[in-house]
Amino acid sequence: KFKTVEIECIFSGIAYSALSGVAPVYGLYSSFFPVLFYMFFATSRHNSIGSFAVVSLMTGEANRVIMTKYAAFSTNSTISSTQIAHLRPIMVASTLTFVVGIVQFAAGFLRLEFITAYFSDQLVDGFITGAACIVIAAQVNDVLGVNVPDVTGPAYTFKRFYDVLSQIAQSNVCTVIISVISFAFLYVGRDFISPYVTKRFKIKIPIPYELILVIITTGISYGFRLDQRYGMEIVGDIPAGMPLPQVPVFSILLDCLPHALSITAVIIAVHISMAKMLAKKMNYEIDSRQELYALGLSSMLGGLFPIYPVSTAMGRTMVNVESGSRTQLAALFSCLLLLIVILWLGPLLESLPICVLAVIIIMALRSLFEKVDYLKNLWHGSKIDLLTWLVAFVTTVGLDVMKGLVISIIFALLTIVFRSQWPKSETLAPTRGAEDFENLRRYKALSQYPDIHIFRFDSPLLFPNVENFKAKILKQIKSWSDGDSDTNDSVTDRPDTKETSSMKFIIIDCSCISFIDCMGVNALKEAVHDTKSRRVTLLLAAATGTF
């Protein structure tokens, strides 16, 4: 069963190496070394780490920025010519991996795993979906076999599609045919053949359509020399053998740090959320802090080899679960199979068409765009969560990955402030028997005592929302003077109360006020004073010990 997972690792590694800006063989190394180190320190039994599209994309951006900087400074006397002459993209990628490991280990040492609580599912999902659009945009030219200029900066996705469309007449016919056939093969296999086989023969192991596609297209490409006869681009040189360890380029550590911070944020958010979800589903415990140590050590040790940063891949992890894996020991067998590929079988993939890898990447990301029901649920459940998803998606697609991530996190934090400063509040009324109280606006058939208003404030009473709290209390008082409560259009007098009364009461349900600060205490005192001057008695119910 482990072969299914390793097939995913092999081809995702080769495919995503292009996103990282390095040669395909380094994708194999990246799927081997970190996985081997991670399994010794991990507490998650199912997380499968390796190449991840979003992290590879961010690595490619870091590679471009750092290589461009050093190329521009090549005549600067403060930088040695030896460093410039020997600096290559894989050296930047492996050094970046090493720095990512340091940041992850430091996060565990400083107990910063709590930060992941602020990375809501909507933020992470919107960001990853937006990044997936950028990944697809980066693959379109390979699918069509057209040459387009490299573009960077904001609106990369739109610029890329525009450049591809402007050059579509120059598409390589052979590449387009192979791409269309590959799309059709994977689509029909996954959506029609696999469900039928599973239902008919009760086979739960996913059929490796990617492996079948790669074998067939590589054989056709090699047999008919498609690269030489029709100009179709292929993977090219994949040397056999293990790489030697290498020392990180310490002179670019500071250049790597900003990129490492953003990459680490994505890795931790995806990894911890996936680990917690599977641990809960499979009924075991994980240690989030130990997971940070495991990620850090695997990246630091892996960074001593020519690899690029890796992360938990959601699709590959679910394949790992479906394949029956129960411990990280499965990773050992996966590494053994990958070792065989690295030592002996790698050169067999040299004739693999690049367009096939692009198709595999796009099809692997397809599920991220099946969001109609998910977004509908967000709309009905929480419009703020929907807005968080949209902000993360739009800023990532419209700007770039790093800016999109930063803006998304800032916006998510602002929603916490927004919810705290303008919390929900409700006017309650007793149900039949007066044992429970419900929202008077939601249950309009309920009636309340005419001289008693029960008010619930759904938030801690803190300095940002004290003015809002006092305004809500004043609104309750004004509803009497106006003779009509704005929270109930069909209030009826209860038979057990007098029609007129000299005393009126506001009861504050404090069950949702979990904490109160000094300004909150002062706000309560002011509310008591204001209500008393208007011949209204203010009472507290269900107050906790924090009062």
Automatic annotation (TrEMBL):
It holds the Pfam family Sulfate_transp. It is a multi-pass membrane protein. This is STAS domain-containing protein. It comes from Anisakis simplex (Herring worm). GO terms for cellular component: membrane. The keyword Membrane applies. The chain crosses the membrane at residues 23-41, 90-110, 168-188, 209-226, 246-272, 292-308, 328-345, 352-369, 389-418. It comes from the Eukaryota. Keywords: Membrane, Transmembrane, Transmembrane helix. CDD domains: STAS_SulP_like_sulfate_transporter (cd07042). The keyword Transmembrane applies. Residues 442-547 form the STAS domain. InterPro entries: SLC26A/SulP_dom (IPR011547), SLC26A/SulP_fam (IPR001902), STAS_dom (IPR002645), STAS_dom_sf (IPR036513). Gene3D superfamilies: STAS domain (3.30.750.24). It is found in: Membrane. GO terms for biological process: transmembrane transport.
